[in-house]
Structure formats: C-alpha cells, structure tokens
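Researcher: Sequence recovery benchmark, item below. Answer with residues only.
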C-alpha cells in the first residue's frame, strides 16, 4: 500500500486567533526571537504552505502564537493506493472495434 502524504498549514488561522491579520505584523515578532525574514518571505510563509521550514522559525511561530507544531501542521493523506486482493478480479473491459473509412475521391 502506498500513501502520498500532504499537510494543511494553519498559520493564518492561528494568527487570526491572536488578532494578527497583517502578515507584516509577524516580521517584528519574529525578529524579537532572532528570526530575520523579509516581509515578502513572511507573506509567502503565511499565504502558502511552506515546503521547507527551519526549526528555529517553527519554534518562534509557536512561541508567538502560543501553540504547538501540531496546531500549525495537520498531516493528511493526499492519495492512497489500495492493493487489490488476488480474488478481486473483475472482468476485463471488452474491446470495441472501429472502422476507418477513407474519404471518397
């Protein structure tokens, strides 16, 4: 069985719970914790799920938002392939025959 994992990123929701509605408001809060990110980088961090995130940044966000990593990151199964049992053999789809006709000259 193969699973493709993904995740939901809840940073914007957690920010709203703490009355932080502008992404630029996070910049000084992160800087207070030693995380220097540009406004553009913070904007991308808030508006789209990050592919890479340093542990320092994650810990700073958790401190700012008084939450745990589990509150920010929700693992999800995106695609799951289920193996078919050997006895679960369905009849093959019948072939359809087609006729190709040449245009009349």
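Model:
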């Amino acid at each position: 069985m193969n699973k493709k994992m993904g995740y939901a990123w809840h940073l914007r929701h957690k920010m709203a719970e703490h009355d932080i509605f502008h992404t630029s408001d996070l910049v000084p809060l992160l800087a207070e914790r030693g995380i220097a990110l540009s406004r553009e980088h913070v904007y991308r961090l808030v508006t789209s799920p990050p592919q890479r995130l340093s542990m320092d940044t994650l810990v700073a966000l958790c401190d700012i938002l008084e939450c745990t990593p589990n509150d920010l990151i929700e693992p999800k199964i995106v695609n799951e392939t289920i193996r078919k049992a050997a006895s679960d053999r369905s009849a093959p789809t019948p072939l359809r025959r087609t006729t190709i006709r040449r245009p009349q000259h």
